[in-house]
Amino acid sequence: MTALIQLTETVLHQTLALQMPAGGVALQGRLQVPGDKSISHRSLMLGSIAQGETRIKGLLLGEDPRSTAKCFRAMGVTLSDLEQEWVAVQGVGLGNLQEPSEVLDAGNSGTTLRLMLGLLASHPGRFFTVTGDGSLRSRPMGRVIKPLIEMGADIWGRQGNTLAPLAVRGQRLKSMHYRSPVASAQVKSCILLAGLMTEGRTTVSEPSLSRDHSERMLRAFGADIAVDPETCSVAVSGPATLTGQTIVVPGDISSAAFWLVAALITPGSELVIENVGINPTRTGILDALWQMEADITLENEREVTGEPVADLRVRASALKAATFSGDLIPRMIDEIPVLAVAALFAQGTTVVKDAEELRVKECDRITVMAQQLNRLGAQVTEQPDGLEIEGGAMLQGAEVDSYTDHRVGMSLAIAALRTSGQTTIQRAEAAAVSYPSFVQTLANLCQPA
Ligand code: S3P
Questions:
Q1: Nearest of 438, 430, 369 to residue 31 by alpha carbon
Q2: CATH placement of domain 37-248
Q3: The pTM is what?
Q4: CATH architecture of 4-35+250-448
Q5: Among 144, 186, 218, 365, which residue has the most ligand 1 atoms within 8 Å of its CB, making it the best to mutate?
Q6: 148-160: per-residue pLDDT in tens?
Q7: Which residues have CB under 8 Å from 313's CB, separation 6+?
Q8: Domain residues of the chain, as ranges?
């Protein structure tokens, strides 16, 4: 018997059914993952506000970057067809985004909404309204609105300016030093983008270092960026002038993480995932899996347009449980759902702490991952700031739900590789947010050679 991987569609949703053959599957071969989501958003945004043309190769064609592209088109930016190998962005120049005649819709994308807000708030005299889907409208926006208001921004939203939809009247802002209580690249980037148009030095410090793609790319576009790693601070001097660049987007390590875990937990597997971004602010998942004694090696390390890249070779491994906390957590925040799946097949109890940020992602990933994995027969205990995962699991097929969260849906599909009987995942269409070809790649890998 071969693996059954079947997608059925209703008008609104997709259901993914998975059933592995009696002897299990072994995954073999080489593959590539789609472009990095964080770098894709930033290349579209900086390209839009720079002077001249920005050319982007390897842009992620997921729903999230499409939301960014749609918002900036609505503000007068000309973008070529996103499906082309090279996407061209005709930058309007800093401060020249037009007042849109429509509500800007960020869809499911926190990065689109939070980063864009820094730009909108600093466009004097222009009026913008912004919203998102049901998930995004319930996510905390106060974390970016509060510092922007301290800089002089005029932003109005539900529940005391904390939830979208939001109304923004652009202002000339004042520079400041903001000490963020959370390690969040979205908060940091929002303030830096607001600082671009603001006279003087705008500084953001965070409790530990979050992903630094904005800093790298802003510098490449010509902004004056000063980084102090000791204090996890970044400063931008404004007003800045940005010049269009050529960007080659590496594969997304957050997407590669699904295949790393898939190969680690399915005996006999060996995969090479080519061209993956290995920016040190994103490789917490590699450090965590190495700590669990995973057999993963980096090959062909190189640098591509300012970001480190490598091919990742992974072989099935006898994993050991571990405890993860502190500065490692922001470096692997998006990979914790799939790390929980790896922990199910490790020896011992794995503990994830200091990860309360998971509760305000596309869904509450602590509650939802514990509930959904337990439906398959796992023993996962929810903690206020993380998860405790019992290893040595024997999973049985059941009906589970993505809760419209892309990373939850894909993590459950990886768990299904080691589940007996049939697993059905409701609202599996969520994967398209960051990985539109996920099911196709899974089906290809599960075909016997
Ligand atoms: C992102 C930052 C992270 C991450 C998200 C993408 C970014 O969010 O979870 O998927 O591109 O800046 P936070 O800044 O809220 O931690």
A1: 438
A2: 3.65.10.10
A3: 0.98
A4: Alpha-beta prism (3.65)
A5: 186
A6: 999 999 999 999 9
A7: 270, 271, 272, 296, 297, 298, 299
A8: 4-35+250-448, 37-248
